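sorry for the late reply, my laptop died twice this morning and i had to redo everyting from scratch. anyway the thing you sent over, i finally got around to it. pasting the sequence first so we're on the same page, its 480 residues, then the predicted structure underneath. double check i copied it right bc i was rushing
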Amino acid sequence: MTEERVLVVDDEKDFREFMISHLSRRGYEVESAANGIEAMKVLQANGPFAVLVTDLTMPEMGGLELLRYARGHDPEIEVVVISANDTIETAIAALRENGAYDYLLKPLANNNELSMAVGRAADYRRLRQERESLQNQLLAEAKRLQALIATTGDAIIAADAQGVVTVINPAAAQLLGRDNLVGASALPNLPRSLATLVSNWQTVGGQQPAVVEVPWAGNSVRLVNLTPLPGSDGKTEGWVMVLSDITHLKRLDELQMRLLTEAANKIQLPLVQALAGVVELNQMNEGKSERFNKTLFSLAKVLSQIQKWIDDLLIMARVEAGIGIQPVSLNVADLVQEWAQTANKTLLQDKALRLNIIIGENVPMVYADRELVFRLLQQLLDQMASRARAEPGRALRISVNHHQGQVWIDVTTEGVMPKTTDPVRRVTKTLGGPATTTPAAWPDLAVVSAIVNGVGGQVWVRGKEPVGTAIAICLPAIAK
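ok and here's the structure:
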C-alpha cells in the first residue's frame, strides 16, 4: 500500500468521484477539485502532492494552464492529463511542451489504467527525488573531500589512466614549486625521483598500493603512498600519490641505527670468542656425548645467525655512512654470470634447481661499488635459489635488461609465478620482521635494499612476505 497524496481535477462529478474511490481503494490519499481555479487553491493550501490528475477540457481554467501553474508552484509534482479523443493532440503537447508525465483517454478502457498511470508517475517522482538526493550527497561529499585535500599538509597528486594530472593540492603545488600541472602529462613534469617511482611501479606490474621513502631536497625524506584508482569496470583509471614529510622520523631511525651499530661493534669480539669456545668444546667432546654435541651444534647455529645479523648491520651502517665505498663502472650482466658459476658449484649440485639466465642486448654499465653489488646479488640470488630448491623441479629465472635509463635485474622462481593480485611493494631497509616471518629472510633483503638505495636504485617485491616469488632490482644506468 502507498501513502502518496494525489489531487484529481475534473468538472464531471461522476468521473471525479470514480477517480477518488478507485485511487483511495489503492491506498492513495486523495483530494479533489471541480475546476482549475479550485485546484489552484487546494495546491496552495494543502500541498505538496505527489501526482496531479487533471482533465484537459474544463471551464474557467483548462488543464494545460493548470499544469503549467502546478509545475511552477511545485516542480516536484508529476502530472497525468486526461483527454477525450478529439483533444489527443493537446494531450501530446502537454507531454512534450509542459512536462506532463502521462496521458489517458476518456473513456478509460480499463479502470486499472488510472491507478497504473498514477503509480508509475509516483514511482518516477520518488526515483527522481532519490537520485537528486544522492547527487546532492555526492556533491556535498565532493566539496568536503575537496576542502580536506586543499587544507591537508600532505602533498596530493592524482593522474588519470593516460597519465594526465587531474588533481594537485596547494601543498603539492608548494612542494613542487608549480601550481599549473592540472591537464599536463605527469611523468615529464614531476621531479625525476617521483617520475622514476611511478614508472617503475607501473613496470613491475600489478599496480597494487605501494609505500616508498624518497629522498628530497635539503636532506629531507618524503614518504610516498602510491595507490591505483579503480574504475567501474575493474580496470585502473589512474593513480593518486600522497607525500608526507617523515624527516624527523628518519632522524630517529638514524639514531637507532647508530645505537645498534655501537652495540654490534661491542658485541662482535665477544661473539667471535664465544664461537671459538663452542668449537673448542666440540673438539674436546668428540666421540663422547651425542646429546652434548647436539646442544653445541644448536648453540653454534644461533651464534652464527647472530654473527650474520651483526655483519649485515655493519654493512648497512657502512653503506649509509659512505665509508669505504669505491664506485666504479660495472657490468651487471658479468656479475650475474660470475654468481651463476659459483652457484653451479654449490647450490645446483643436487640438481634440484634449474637456472635460467637471460641477458638483454646492449645492457649499459652502472656506477657502484663492485664488492657491494656482488654481495647484494649473492645474498639475494642465494636466498631465492634456496627458496626454489625447497620445491623440486623449480627453476630460478634471472634476467638483466635495460629499461627507461635503468638496469633491471628480475629474479623469479619459475613455476610459482606471482599473480596479478599479489601485493607489490618496494623494500626499504629493515632489520627483523613480524614474528611470523622467516628470521633469515628480512636481514638479507634489508642489506640488499640498503646497497641498492645507496646507489639511487630501488628494490621491488611481488608475492607474500618475507621474500616473495619475484624480485626486481633497478639501478641507474650510466648515460652513454
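Confidence is low (pLDDT under 50) at residues 416-443, 464-468.
thats about all i looked at so far, will dig more tmrw
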